[in-house]
From TrEMBL:
The keyword Lyase applies. This is Carbonic anhydrase. It comes from Maribacter arenosus. Reversible hydration of carbon dioxide. Gene3D superfamilies: Alpha carbonic anhydrase (3.10.200.10).
Amino acid sequence: MDKKIILFLFTVIMVLGSCKNNKKSDHLDEHAVQKHWSYHGETSPEHWMEIEKNSDCGGTAQSPINIIDNTTVPIEIKDSLQLYYSPKTLLSKVENNGHSIQFDFETGDSIQFNNEVYYLKQIHFHEPSEHKINGVTYPIEVHLVHMSKNNGLTVFSVMGIEGEESQLFEFFKSFLPLANGETKEIHQQLDITGLSLENRGYYFYSGSLTTPPCTENVNWIVFKDPIVISLDEVLALRKNMPLNNYRNEQPINGRTIYHK
């Protein structure tokens, strides 16, 4: 075969191989960019600040925290928290978002905190608890997320301990199992007053979302007394969520923690 032809074929093979490698490299780079946060391994909470570049995850007012009762101070504002929950709260859907089981509410129920109204948006779960009270970690923590018209957030944190069966959690359990990424339409009434949060003592502090982007615009209301749910109810939720879907404790950094 003519040497010029051999040289030409060799050049073509090298060019095609280079293009293939470049495409593979580009794919790997794209995959690296799309790396998503999780609760384990290289994308666990310890690395959120690295992989979520435009987030607040490295901020100084992060959540969750360990609340030490004897370092808190009394809330001076009288009747700063008011609940307007109905026995006929409407749920729209439930989804497994890969991080937790989340129930979304239709617009209706609300709370008032420090003279601002926040509407109940959704409820989700962490096992074990993210917040600690006097160093104690609870089997489960329930977050009720409320949003104002100005996109401010007030999140209720309710701890759970194992004991008797809860009618409310039996309702939640009835929609499980739910595969990762799966959504179910509900459009049913729910008596959220079953949590009995009225007149409960609570702690308050300014913090952040406990998942990326860790935005530091959250009023945290952490109730002192836990609710009681059964072991079966805890396990039913656990089987449908990532193992240990909690963020590690964050520094308080001089923030004041209030109690009522």
